[in-house]
Amino acid sequence: MLKRCYLLMLLLSVTVFFACETFMAGGSDEQTNAIAGLVLGPDQKPVSGVEVAARSISGNHSPEEIVALDTTASDGSFTLHFEKSGTYGVSAEKDSLLYYFVLDVTEQDTFRLNAVLRPQNTLSGTLYLREDSVAAFVEMRIPGSPWKTKTDASGNFEFEKVPEGQFEVFVISPDYQRFTSVSYWLSVSEKDALSSGPFENHENFIGNRDSLPASSPLLGYSSLSNWFLPLSSEYALVGWWAMDVFGAGAGNTKTISDSRSHTDPGLVYGDAFLEKSPQGKALVLKKASDFAVVENDRGVLDSATVFTVEAWVYVDSLGSVVDYYRKNIVGKLGFGSEIDGDIFTLAVIGNTCGIKQEGVFAFFLADGTGMDFTCQNAAVDSRPLKTKEWIYLVGTWDGSELRLYRNGVLAAKTSTAIRVLAPSSEPLFFGKEDLSLKIDNVRWSRVALDSTDVIFRYRQGGSL
C-alpha cells in the first residue's frame, strides 16, 4: 500500500492536509501500484495537458530517475503506475503553477487524489562550509522533482521554482571525507519562506513529517538566509568510545576500546558495568573506585592547535559535596602526579569559578606543560545541571576560545591564551570521582566543532 501519501501545506499560517482517497484496483491494476487522480488549478477546475511525473527518491531505482509519467486528459485526469516499491516524488507544472508531494509505494493498492497546482516561488540564500568559508558549486535539489540548483563561487544559491508547502531540500556534500550531505526543511507560503536544519539524510528521503515545533530553538523555523554543511563525524576523529561492549584484558580485567583504534584499550576498574542506554549501552560509574582509564593514547593530541571532546552524560547523583569541588567526567589529567601534564577535563563543579550553587558543568583546558586547571581557562555553564536525564556535552577549543555546549546550545565561552597542546603522557580518565553517572559515546577530535556541527550531532544522537 502507499504508507505516506499526503501534502502538508503551511499557507498563511493555516495547516491543510491533502490526503489520498483509497480504492481497490481491478483488472490489470491488481498487478501494479497505481495512482489515479485529477490535476486542479487554484480555482479547483481541472487542468488538461499537464505532465505529471514520479521520480525515485530511494528504493530500487536510481535517484531522480523518472519511473512513471502521464499527461492529464481533457478532464484533468491522470494515472501513474509503479512496478517497484520505493519512495517517490510526484511533481507537476503548468504556467508558473507547481504541485509536489512524496509517497512510499510498498504494496499493490491503487489510490486516487486531487493534485492542486499552487503558485511557484523563488528562494535564495548562502551556503557555508564554516562560519568564514562559503560552499562554492554545491548541488542542491528538492528530491524527486526537476527543481534543483547549484551555489555560485560566493556560495549564493537561488531556486527559481519551488512549490508552496513544507518539504525538504537535499544539500549534497562537495567533499564526503570532510562534510556531510544534509536536508534542510522548508516551509513556503505566498508571503514567507522559513527553514529548519540541518538534518541527516544520507540521501535517503526523510519524508513528509509533522510540522516542527516552532517553540524549539533547535527545531523551529527561522528566516531563510544562511545554511551550513556540518563536518563529517569521522573528520579529524582521534578517539571514539561507544561503550557498547567490554573487552577482555590480562587476567580478569575488563576493557573499553576506541572503536577506531586510534588509542590503546582502556582498563575498567571497580564495579563499573555496562547498562542499556538510548544509543546502545553506557558505562556506569557509581563511586570514585569505579572508573576507566586509557593509559596510552598514542599522542593523538600532541601539538594540537584545536580540539573537541564530546560525551553523552547521565548524572544520577553528585555524591558527597564539600565546600568547593571539581569532579572529572572525562579528562586527560594527572590526578596529582609528580609531573603534571594536564590537558582537559569535562567536569561537574560546585562553589568555584564564580558559581555559588551545587553542580554545574564546566570545560577546563591546560597546555600540558604543568599548567593547573584554572577558572581563567574554563568555560563554565551558569545553569545547574539536571540529574537523571541524558545530556549531550561538547567542549571545543579553536586556538583562542573555549566553548561549552549543552544539548546543542552554547552554554558558556571564554577566551584563552593557550595556543598549542604540549605532548602529554597523562592518561585519559572516565570518572574516578565520588560521582554517580553514566557515560556514553565519548569522542575527541583535532578540530573545533562550530554551532552547526554541534546541533547536527545532537540531533543525530537521538534528541528527536
CATH class of the largest domain: Mainly Beta
Outline the biggest β-sheet. 9 strands, antiparallel
- Percent of sequence in beta strands: over 45%
Distance between the termini: 27 Å
Structural class comes to: mainly beta
How helical, in percent, are the residues?
under 10%
β-strand number: 38
Integer-rounded radius of gyration: 27 Å
The appropriate CATH architecture of the largest domain is Sandwich
Compute the average pLDDT. 85
Task: Explain the overall architecture.
- With 464 residues, this protein is mostly beta strands.
- It folds into three domains: 2-119, Aromatic compound dioxygenase (Protocatechuate 3,4-Dioxygenase, subunit A, Sandwich); 121-228, Carboxypeptidase-like, regulatory domain (Immunoglobulin-like); 237-463, Jelly Rolls (Sandwich), CATH 2.60.120.
- It has one helix at residues 451-463; strands at residues 2-11, 14-19, 21-23, 33-40, 51-59, 66-71, 77-82, 86-94, 97-105, 110-116, 118-119, 121-130, 133-134, 139-141, 148-150, 156-162, 165-171, 182-188, 193-200, 222-223, 226-228, 237-241, 247-248, 254-256, 266-269, 273-277, 280-285, 291-294, 307-317, 325-332, 344-350, 360-365, 378-380, 390-397, 401-406, 409-415, 428-431, 436-445.
- The protein is elongated, with a radius of gyration of 27 Å.
